[in-house]
Each structure stands twice: as C-alpha cells, then as structure tokens.
Amino acid sequence: MSGRTAGLWLALLAASAAGALLLESIGLSAGLLLGPMLAAIAFSARGAGLHLPRPFFVGAQAVIGCLIAGTLSIDTFARVAAQWPLFLGVTAATLGASSALGYLLSRWQVLPGNTAIWGSMPGAASAMVVMADAFGADARLVAFMTYTRVVCVAGVASILAAALGARRGDGWLESMLAPSPLLPSLATLAVAGIGAFAGLKLRVPAGALLVPMALGILLHAIGVLRMTLPEPVLAASYALVGWRIGLAFTRETLALAARALPRILLAILALIAFSAALAFALAEGAGIDPVSAYLAVSPGGLDSVAIIATSVPVDQPFVMAMQALRFLAVLVLGPTLARFAAGRFAKSTAGVPPGRALPPGE
Q1: In this structure, are residues 40 and 242 in contact, taking their beta carbons and an 8 Å threshold?
Q2: DSSP letter string, 46-104
Q3: I need a surface site. Which of 88, 139, 196, 211 has the fewest CB within 10 A?
Q4: In the chain, what percentage of residues exceed pLDDT 70?
C-alpha cells in the first residue's frame, strides 16, 4: 500500500467517524452505516480509487448474517406459517413491482433488458451484482442501479424512523462501549467465520451472508447458542458495508450511467412510493407499526435493512422474516426473469458490450 493510499484510507476513516457521530447524535437511525456510506461516495466520486479488500467485506457480511439470525426464532417461523398468506402476498407484491419497473426500464431502452431486471431486484446488493454478472448483465450498471436504490431506501427509512420517534436513543455511545459476554461473543464470531468459509467454498450466492445466517438461525432456534455480537464489531461491520456500497460509485460508473440517472432515480422513487403505500396498507390491515411495516417491505438490501432494523425499536423478527423470504424468492425467480428479459429485449442489448468485470474487491 502506497503512502497516498494509506493517507486516503485514514482520511476516509476520519470522515466516516465524523459522519456517523453526527448522524447518531441527531437521532438518525443507522448512522454507523450511513455516515461511512456517504463519506465513501464522496471520496469515490472525486477519484480516490479506493477498493475495499474482499476479505473485509466477506467478514462484514458474515457478522450481519449472525445479526439477522439473532432476530429470528422458532416463534418467528411459527408466525410466518400462521400468517403465510400475508407474507407471500407482500413478497409477491414487492417482487412484482420491482420486476415491472425493470421491464419498463428495458422497454424504454433506459438499460439493456436483463441489466434493468437485475438492477431492479430487491435483495442483498452484492449478491444481485454477482448473480447479474453470472447471467451476462452489465455488472457496472447493475451495481450502480442497485447501490443507488440502497442509498435512497436507507436514507428514507432512517428519516422515517426518526420522524416517527423510532430512534436508538441518547445512550447509544454508552451501549457502544458496554462490555459483551466473552464466550457467547467468541462463539458467535466462530459461527460467522465458519459459515462464511463454508458459503464461499460451496459457491452459494451471497454465501458469506446466507450460510452464517442459516447456521446461526439453527443454533439460536434450538437453544445451543444465543447470537451475541459486541457493539464495536457491529459498528465496524456497518462501516465496512457502508464503504462497500459507497466505493461502488466510481467516476466510471457515474459517467456510464449519467444519461440514464434521472429515469433510474424516478424508477427508484416510484418503487419507494409503492413500498410506502404497501406499508401503510400493512400497518392498517395487520396492525403492524408503520416503521416495522416499511422496513419489512422496503426494497433495500437485506444487509442494510438488517442494520437499520436493529438500530431502532421495531418488530425485528417480522422485518427480517419478510426480508429473508423475499430474498429467497429473488434467488429462485431472478434467473428466470433475467432470461425472459434477455430474450424479450435481445434487440435492445445488441451492440452493448457486457461489463463482465466486477469492481476490485468483490
């Protein structure tokens, strides 16, 4: 690492800490994610050329997987089984709206067919980029659209949580410095490490997130281990996820997508508005509080929604169960939808060179 690169990383760390401190101090939820994310966007857009090494992001995903696992239990799955029409209906509605927007972006030739479909898919952002690349979409444009949506959704969700009074509270710094039980914490980190290694070896899509999550859910549900993560470890993971999202906004991707940006933003805002309407119906019809309802249906990444949901007092099991169910639906249906788009809009993709190369560190 050169002296210039080291200096840029230190500057990014300082800017991220300042941003996180400011956002947390004013009561905006997930400031530990949004502060580093916004700082990374600013650095990357100015040509800093920083790329998060893949092992750091893999580790952060594994920790977030264990975090999600800690919010789910046998009671959660019993609730899903008892209310399966509600869960399936909301999942189908959100996935249908996302697919429809991708279809329209393809039809209007804003983006090539399967690129628009993958860019519109709600789920873990990194997983969508990897899967899109595997199915021949332009990974650069998918990354731009996906991470732009994640930034918008995370910002709206955090502002909504603050506006409705769902906030971490004034003692967030004290909770950050509070000691965590040693043995459960070490065991949880071991689950994260083993799960991430297994996910990568088995080539599971988003395996660094999903395998630790599945393993943690199993151990947590049968009472062997209660997922326990020290706050500093969580804060570092939030920052790494924020950096990974923010650093994807390179000058190259910004220039590549500049012409389509207004229509991409319009599509994202339409999807957010649809999610807000669906959340309102869910809150009124099922008695779910508005913040929980919005987080449950929001089309952001599974990892970023998990961070927000655990930063504010909401119905975490409901939120994560809904998000996990939708993500699994995307994993199953995404390739079929992408193949449909590629065939239906073959003419719109002709002559467009596929962006096969992922950003370094992916």
Answers
A1: yes
A2: TT------HHHHHHHHHHHHHHHHHH--HHHHHHHHHTHHHHHHHHHHHHHHHHHHHHH
A3: 88
A4: 83
